[in-house]
Write a structure and sequence with these properties.
globular, Rossmann fold, binds adenosine-5'-triphosphate, 4-stranded antiparallel beta sheet, alpha/beta, 10 strands, 222 residues, binds magnesium ion, 7 helices
């Protein structure tokens, strides 16, 4: 489902170019889950952004859910993300003016979805129940705790039943029991059909995934 081949990412900076990823290879099959670990600044979010077609590599190729990401223009990349990707961002990027339920439904606003509104809404409510927010549907993000905002972001990432789930620290601000529930949910959504890539400093979560890769000097080891 995900094939990254010799991916290099170099950022321009005032102090000169910074190469964060260097000839990185990664292969993740459907139904497979991978934890990415590594110190702060090692390039974990950079890697998720490339797999998620939010940024382009300096060199190398990415095949995700059957698409060659290098061949997509901006509009095609946006459509690809909406159809196939669920992204839980390190900063959650909830829409402040929308309620919890509306935030989860935002990915359905893109054109082309044919499911009727009641079915979609029922799935959104079921996801919010699974993340423990059934009593917060009408809250705005500013009326939520940090961990609650994160859980809205997780429900939003899953609403379109993505084939590729990318999650940047999805248990970062959660207590162990809530973190376990989130891990259960992500793994259930992945089982047999989707690829899951999780950046995490939580060893308990990493252990539950099929394998763990460490980012070291721009490459994945392990
Ligand atoms: N847009 C950018 N321009 C220049 N440098 C950048 C840019 N984005 C990230 N970097 C640099 O690339 C490196 C990797 O950043 P990245 O966000 O991928 O790290 P990370 O492994 O996710 O870290 P953390 O665990 O702190 O979230 C950092 O040193 C950062 O300063
Ligand atoms: Mg990061």
């Amino acid at each position: 489902m995900i094939t990254a081949t010799r991916v290099t990412k170099t950022y321009a900076s005032p102090a000169g170019p910074v190469t964060v990823l260097q000839d990185l290879d990664l292969e993740v099959a459907a139904g497979e889950s991978v934890a990415i670990v590594g110190p702060s600044g090692s390039g974990k979010t950079t890697l998720l952004n490339l797999i998620g077609a939010l940024d382009r590599p300096t060199s190398g190729t990415l095949q995700v859910a059957g698409e060659d990401l290098g061949a997509l223009d901006a509009a095609a990349a946006a459509r690809f993300r909406n159809r196939h990707l669920g992204f839980v961002f390190q900063l959650h990027h909830l829409l402040p003016q929308c309620t919890v339920l509306e935030n989860v439904l935002v990915p359905r606003l893109a054109g082309g979805w044919t499911e009727d509104a009641a079915t979609t809404r029922a799935r959104a409510e079921a996801l919010l129940r699974e993340v423990g927010l059934q009593d917060r549907l009408d809250h705005r993000p500013y009326q939520l705790s940090g961990g609650e905002q994160l859980r809205v972001a997780i429900a939003r990432a899953l609403i379109n039943q993505p084939r590729v789930i990318l999650a940047d620290e999805p248990t970062g601000s959660l207590d162990p029991a809530t973190g376990e529930r989130i891990a259960d949910l992500l793994l259930r959504q992945t089982a047999g059909k989707a690829a899951l890539v999780v950046v995490t400093h939580n060893p308990g979560l990493a252990r539950r995934l099929h394998r763990t890769c460490r980012l070291e000097q721009g490459r994945l080891v392990g």
